[in-house]
Amino acid sequence: MNYNNIISDFIDGVTTITINRPTKLNALNRATILELNAAFKAAESDFDTQVIIITGGGEKAFVAGADISEFAHFGPEQGSLLSREGQDLLFDFIEALRTPVIAAINGFALGGGLELAMSAHFRVASENARMGLPETSLGLIPGYGGTQRLTQLVGKGRALELIMTASMIDAQKALDYGVVNYVVPQEELLATCYALANKIKSNSPVAISAAIKAVNAHYTDGLNGFEVEISEFGKCFGTQDFEEGTSAFLEKRKSKFPGK
Q1: Domain range for residue 125?
Q2: Of the residues 77, 115, 127, 244, which is catalytic?
Q3: CB of 146 within 8 A of CB of 133?
Q4: The whole model's pTM is what?
Q5: Structural domain contains residue 57
Q6: Which residue of 11, 17, 83, 244 is most buried, as measured by CB atoms within 10 A?
Q7: How confident is the model over 207-217, as a mean pLDDT?
Q8: Active site residue: 44, 59, 70, 135, which one?
Q9: pLDDT tens-place string over residues 128-151
Q10: Is the pLDDT of residue 121 over 90?
């Protein structure tokens, strides 16, 4: 599929999706959200894709926020629809993917950009990264899951401070707060993500998908995470990956998981 605002590349089991709107600092508009939805769907349905990396083109920004010009004239109903559609098409969609997603945060990740990064399963930031949810400075609140996911990552007090002050934090503070997993020099950002992807690829894709589902259940209303874990754990015993993993362990060899 041809895209106007993103680039999708596949190399050795890893699909890298790059938001490519450099003149807009990769700001998210509706067209980009739709393209991202299509690219993530394609990667998820590709059996050969074992890990997805999401990043921003250029050195200045991962995503500098949403494209404010698209919604500056909206009313309450349009605003609610904007939030709901965005979460359904992209942010909640990414979080629920069976394929693990790593966000490679280069430069600014503000507003919808930080919300996009937080919807990934974990995050790696470059040393020059700057993160924040500045929506209250526009008379808004985060609408793409930011109030929920930031609170999950850093706790209520810090989440409210960052949201109410509309402050940016640097990469080191983001690491200290638990927003990101690693901070690396910018020139090592993608290499670090690929190295992590290779570690993930050495394990069972079926088990990894089950783990994502079980962990997400902890944060889903109406679900008992322990029960989901028990169910997913049991299902693993009926997979070819379980047969291969246990056989390889007992035979003292490296596993070759079929992903089934």
Answers
A1: 6-201
A2: 115
A3: yes
A4: 0.95
A5: yes
A6: 17
A7: 97
A8: 135
A9: 999 999 999 999 999 999 999 999
A10: yes
